[in-house]
Specification:
This is Cell shape-determining protein MreC. Keywords: Cell shape, Membrane, Transmembrane, Transmembrane helix. With 280 residues, the protein is α+β, with helices and mostly antiparallel strands. The strands form two sheets. The protein has a six-stranded antiparallel barrel. Helix 1 crosses helix 2. It is elongated and about 95 Å long.
């Protein structure tokens, strides 16, 4: 009881102020219909603001979960869309089973961009269906790399920003194709070679994947940022703005070509002139 008396003696001015303010607000709220409406409107705005704040906070913390769900949905749709036609079959399961490509998702837990040979590590391994030579795409479908080695729970991937990484690329508006690789300088650009000088090339043209065992056809690689003649003058030397933003990549989509091993065993020896670099 003595402590309570001391508390009131110490804070009585504050308590008196709060009591008087509450009385004044109550009197104002019941004085006229206008004052009641004004106070109600102010209270409604304040309440709505608090609800919006709490909702925005909840949305922020659920954003990562929603992104993962969206990526998983993209992987399922990609698998279904890549399905081979099957006679007398209309079910989704049968179409998926006949697909030459299987898609899944993963999260990047380590990434390098400042070396000549860059790699990144993902949080899935062989226990979750990840295999060597699976292609790696960004969430919006751009070429990002491929799986080099797996453990049970993790996998190391060769980045598109690796001088040993090459992929066949063609122009979306015509059938001219060449080899795409990184020159080790700028993480925003890669180089397209072996395009003949008589081929029409313009800044802004789109280049997509072609003749690749790791990647489905027509996956975005980049857009033409500059064109110059090669040293021998017979081909273009084309600078591409890379579609994959490797400096800001946190999640990826993995793709496995069902016939990779069979075709690699069959055709690999006939492409031995490129044996020192990873196959496209």
């Amino acid at each position: 009881m003595y402590r309570l008396i001391l508390f009131f003696r110490k804070y009585y001015t504050v308590l008196l102020f709060i009591l008087l303010e509450a009385g004044a607000i109550s009197y104002y709220a019941h004085a006229t219909s206008y004052s009641r409406a004004t106070l109600l409107a102010a209270t409604t705005r304040a309440t709505a603001g608090l609800h919006k704040l709490f909702a925005s906070t909840g949305d922020y913390f659920s954003l990562r979960r929603d992104n993962l769900r969206l990526l998983e949905q993209i992987a399922r749709l990609e698998t279904q869309q890549a399905a081979r036609p099957v006679a007398d079959s209309v079910t989704v399961d049968s179409l998926t089973a006949a697909s030459p490509y299987y898609f899944t998702t993963a999260r990047i837990i380590s990434n390098s961009i400042a070396r000549q040979e860059n790699f990144f590590v993902i949080d899935k391994g062989s226990l979750e269906g990840v295999e060597e030579n699976m292609g790696v795409l960004t969430p919006d479908g751009a070429v990002a790399g491929y799986v080099r080695q797996c453990s049970d729970r993790y996998a190391v991937c060769v980045s598109v920003l690796n001088r040993a990484f090459t992929i066949g690329g063609r122009f979306l508006h015509n059938e001219y194709f060449g080899s795409v690789g990184w020159d080790g300088t700028d993480a925003r650009f890669v180089t397209l070679t072996d395009i003949p000088r008589y081929a029409e090339v313009s800044v802004g043209d789109t280049v997509v994947s072609a003749y690749s065992l790791r990647f489905p056809p027509d996956r975005f690689i980049g857009t033409v940022a500059g064109v110059e003649a090669s040293e021998d003058g017979t081909t273009h030397l084309i600078r591409l703005r890379l579609g994959a933003r490797m400096t800001a990549l946190s999640h990826v989509v993995l793709v496995r070509f069902a016939d990779y091993d069979e075709l690699d065993e069959l055709a690999g020896p006939f492409f031995s002139d490129t044996a020192n670099t990873p196959k496209p």
